[in-house]
Specification:
single chain; about 90 residues; mainly alpha; about 0% strand
Length: about 90
């Protein structure tokens, strides 16, 4: 593990091997993290309507959270997209 002299940019972090990234200041993500996690809705939205099929229990779970469930589903998908779009 490398100790950094200054904070690294996203591009500098991306260039590192996983084994060389210092995660010491980040807590482990356990069940309590997900129990308290909240979706942050994007403000600027460029939406496209599609027809898609999802597992019933997934849709039911989002619907149980009330109005805006499709936007929450989109936010979860966007989070995954943002994490993987460069790979």
């Amino acid at each position: 593990m490398v100790q950094y002299q200054k904070p690294l940019s996203a591009d500098e972090l991306k260039a590192l091997d996983d084994k060389d990234i210092d995660f010491s200041d980040q807590p482990e993500l356990d069940e309590s993290f997900w129990a308290n996690a909240r979706v942050v809705m994007p403000e600027d939205r460029n939406l496209t309507q599609v027809t898609a099929k999802f597992d019933k229990e997934v849709v039911d779970w989002f619907r149980q959270q009330g109005r805006g469930y499709q936007a929450r589903m989109n936010s979860v998908l966007r989070s995954y997209y943002e994490a993987h779009k460069g790979t």
